[in-house]
Amino acid sequence: MTAETGAESTSEEEPSNGEIGVAVVTISADGRIEDDAAGDAIVAAFDAEDHEIAIRELIDRSYDNVQAKVSRLLDRDDVDIVVTAGGTGIGPEDATIEAVRPLLEKELSAFSELFYALAFDEIGTKAVTSRTLAGVSDRTPIFCLPNEPVAISSAVESIIVPEADRLVALASGPDSDGGA
User: Fold this and answer.
1) String of DSSP letters for 10-74
2) Taking residues 94-115, what's their average pLDDT?
3) Which has the minimum average pLDDT: 8-22, 23-37, 44-58?
4) Cβ–Cβ < 8 Å for 156, 22
5) Residues 61-87 pLDDT 10s
6) In this structure, are residues 128 and 102 in contact, taking their beta carbons and an 8 Å threshold?
7) How far apart are alpha carbons 169 and 157 in whole angstroms?
8) Pairwise CA distance, residues 24 & 164, whole Å
9) Which residue stretches belong to region Disordered (predicted)?
10) In a 3-state reduction of DSSP, which class is residue 133?
11) Rounded Cα gap, residues 71 and 74, in angstroms
């Protein structure tokens, strides 16, 4: 992928026996999906619980690119949850939070608090520059994480995966069996 072209690198994963379809999107100015440690950490955590990786992509970090990609993923029938990694820092090119927030119908504000507690334990004061976002759009939970593989592993394994079934059921609405 090149930042100039905004080209995307895509990997359609073979489905596992899981019930939840996961979209994994790494947002980066440069890089290859083969070298994507953050995406690998997300995939490993969901694979360990036999969830289906419906799609995995690496995209350019522009606002429009991120917003368009997440919007398209929400339209896919095989995607029940979206997890992004990258573009959440404080640099001028970091636009993931700003691109995804307008898409959300509801925010899951407690996620950020839990993430920061875990991140501090994992990466120390470097966590001060971390920004996260979680919420629901079009009945689909979305999590935006920084591109920090150690913190991602901790957050995905300790927060997102354990709550994934319940979050998907709750976001799906009253016809689901995922009560509070």
Assistant:
1) EEPPPP-S-SSEEEEEEE-SS--GGG-HHHHHHHHHHHHTT-EEEEEEEE---HHHHHHHHHHHH
2) 97
3) 8-22
4) no
5) 999 999 999 999 999 999 999 999 999
6) no
7) 19
8) 14
9) 1-21
10) strand
11) 5
Please name the residue that has the structure tokens 């522009």.
62
Closest Cα partner for 41 from 24, 57, 55?
Answer: 24
d(CA 16, CA 6): 30
Strand (E) or helix (H) holding 150 = helix 149-155
* 2 vs 73: CA distance, rounded Å: 21
Q: What is the pTM of this model?
A: 0.86
Nearest to 71 by CA among 140, 7, 5, 19: 140
In the chain, the N- to C-terminal Cα span, in Å, equals 42
Please check the confidence at residue 3 and state whether its pLDDT lies above 60: no
pLDDT of residue 45: 96
Give the Cα separation of 101 and 139 in Å (integer): 15
Domains of the chain plus CATH, in order, are 9-172 (3.40.980.10)
List, for residues 106-162, the tens digit of each pLDDT value. Answer: 999 999 999 999 988 888 898 898 899 999 999 999 999 999 888 899 999 999 999
**How confident is the model at residue 175, as a pLDDT?**
59
Element (H, E) at 145: strand 140-145
